[in-house]
């Protein structure tokens, strides 16, 4: 049995998106910047895609910048907001402790350039508190950037409340919505979002394509100098097939969202129930305010990496943290941010399911995880210490 349970790392491209891309490559060979009709046809297709993406999130076409993905959109958003702040003498930024590294590393860079960053705690449930955000906002705060849904533990943040607060206080609000777009409803106008990052390969579009929504009035900085594409804000010939594939995938995801969420939530809860039977284990992040496709567990006395390898041998593709940090031995900063100690954070498993998952597959996952955890504990020195009382259990 082959089960792909790592959709938070990347999703399989949808048939319709792949087909739309092939068609686009064959039928729109022109460069959108060329003046002859072949180029103008490609330009038209590009602008159609922009209008459709905008409509799908409640924005206007001119508020969409196409990028190479989520990381670029995050970099662009933060650097632009910082430049806007700097011109007004505002150099304080608020974010959260468990953001994606595309955000955290960009913030580090800004700190080196004289900005001050406050990282809000996300507490045991993995959710930012709006009252704490309110207290953290200062006269010189130029940006609040809080992700819509976390990529490791799937917890969903109170985005509408944060948006309303930032609007009231006149602070730019950006959200990394890479895990949310196409999965939960987003309306940038209604939610008072000033900037939003999205990535096609997280909603069954192609890799290497994404977009940044930026509310009109926000002046972006240029990350890439060159031609006048994207109204001069991002040089380089547009990735039209990627953009067309992304548009198809987003439309498809949003059309099927309710049905997909209902099915995934049912399987997710079945997985949570099954894995909870493993002694000394715990679900990471809020049980309710989380993405329908996310299950994240810690098991005491084991190594997450060994768990993954043994699950792989049983046909299950899963993850221990985010794909960006796996391979590194540091425990996940997300699990540390919700108060898991190093040893416990190390023994963690993220399952991110797609809407094609079946109950039979979920049962195979539960059975396999139970057996593998038991096997790994059978020769784990940490587990032996726990059992003999040399070390105390953290998880009940
Ligand atoms: C995947 C991901 C990114 C990076 O997106 P890329 O398109 O891979 O650059 C950023 N933020 C979050 C929350 C993600 O899950």
Topology:
Layout: E1 3-4, H1 15-27, H2 37-57, E2 64-67, H3 70-87, E3 92-96, H4 101-112, E4 116-120, H5 130-136, E5 141-145, H6 159-169, E6 172-176, E7 195-199, E8 210-214, H7 240-255, H8 257-276, E9 281-283, E10 294-299, H9 304-313, E11 316-317, H10 333-337, H11 342-346, E12 348-352, H12 359-378, H13 381-387
Parallel strand pairs: 1-11, 3-4, 3-5, 5-6, 6-7
Antiparallel strand pairs: 2-8, 7-8, 9-10, 10-12
Quick synopsis:
By secondary structure, the chain is α/β, with parallel strands linked by helices. It is built from 13 helices and twelve strands. Pyridoxal-5'-phosphate binds at residues 69-71, 74, 100, 102, 147, 151, 176, 178-179, 199, 201-202, 210.
Structural notes for this entry:
There is one protein chain. The protein has 396 residues and is an alpha/beta fold. It folds into two domains: 15-255, 3-Layer(aba) Sandwich (Aspartate Aminotransferase, domain 2); 257-388, Aspartate Aminotransferase, domain 1, CATH 3.90.1150. 42% of the residues lie in helices and 13% in strands. The protein is built from 13 helices and twelve strands. It has helices at 15-27, 37-57, 70-87, 101-112, 130-136, 159-169, 240-255, 257-276, 304-313, 333-337, 342-346, 359-378, 381-387, and strands spanning 3-4, 64-67, 92-96, 116-120, 141-145, 172-176, 195-199, 210-214, 281-283, 294-299, 316-317, 348-352. The strands form three sheets. Strands 2-8-7-6-5-3-4 form a seven-stranded mixed sheet, with helices on both faces. It has a three-stranded antiparallel sheet with strand order 9-10-12. α3 runs parallel beside α4 (101-112) and α9 packs across α12 (359-378). It is globular and about 75 Å long. The two termini are 32 Å apart. The relative contact order is 0.15. The mean pLDDT is 96.
């Amino acid at each position: 049995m082959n089960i792909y349970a790592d959709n938070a790392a990347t999703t399989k491209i949808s048939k319709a998106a792949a087909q739309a891309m092939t068609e686009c490559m064959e039928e729109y060979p022109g460069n959108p910047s060329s003046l002859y009709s072949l180029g103008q046809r490609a330009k038209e297709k590009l602008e159609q895609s922009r209008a459709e993406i905008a409509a799908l999130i409640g924005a206007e076409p001119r508020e969409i910048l196409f990028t190479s993905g989520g990381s670029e959109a995050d970099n662009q958003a933060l650097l632009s907001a910082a430049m806007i702040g700097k011109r007004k003498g505002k150099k304080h930024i608020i974010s959260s402790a468990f953001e994606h590294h595309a955000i955290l590393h960009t913030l580090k860079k800004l700190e080196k350039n004289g900005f001050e960053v406050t990282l809000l705690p996300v507490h045991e449930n993995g959710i930012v508190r709006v009252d704490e955000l309110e207290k953290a906002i200062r006269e010189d705060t130029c940006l609040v950037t809080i992700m819509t849904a976390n990529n490791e533990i799937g917890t969903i943040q109170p985005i509408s409340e944060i948006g309303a607060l930032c609007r009231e206080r006149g602070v730019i609000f950006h959200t990394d919505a890479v895990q949310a777009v196409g999965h939960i409803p987003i309306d940038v106008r209604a939610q008072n979002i000033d900037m939003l990052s999205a990535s096609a390969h997280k909603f069954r579009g192609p890799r290497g394509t994404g977009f940044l929504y930026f509310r009109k009035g926000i002046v972006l900085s240029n990350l890439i100098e060159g031609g006048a594409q994207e109204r001069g804000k991002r040089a380089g010939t547009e990735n039209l097939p990627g953009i067309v594939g992304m548009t198809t995938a987003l439309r498809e995801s949003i059309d099927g969202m309710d049905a997909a969420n209902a099915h995934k939530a049912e399987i997710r809860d079945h997985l949570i129930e099954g894995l909870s039977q493993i002694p000394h284990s715990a679900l990471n992040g809020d049980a309710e305010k989380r993405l329908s496709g996310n299950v994240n567990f810690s098991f005491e006395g084991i190594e997450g990496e060994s768990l993954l390898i043994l699950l792989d041998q049983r046909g299950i593709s899963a993850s221990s943290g985010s794909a960006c940090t796996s391979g590194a031995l540091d425990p996940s900063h997300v699990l540390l941010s919700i108060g898991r100690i190093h040893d416990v954070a190390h023994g963690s498993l993220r399952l991110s399911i797609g809407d094609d998952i079946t109950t039979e597959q979920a049962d195979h996952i539960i059975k396999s995880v139970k057996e593998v955890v038991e096997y790994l504990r059978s020769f784990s020195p940490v587990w032996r210490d726990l059992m003999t009382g040399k070390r105390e259990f953290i998880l009940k």
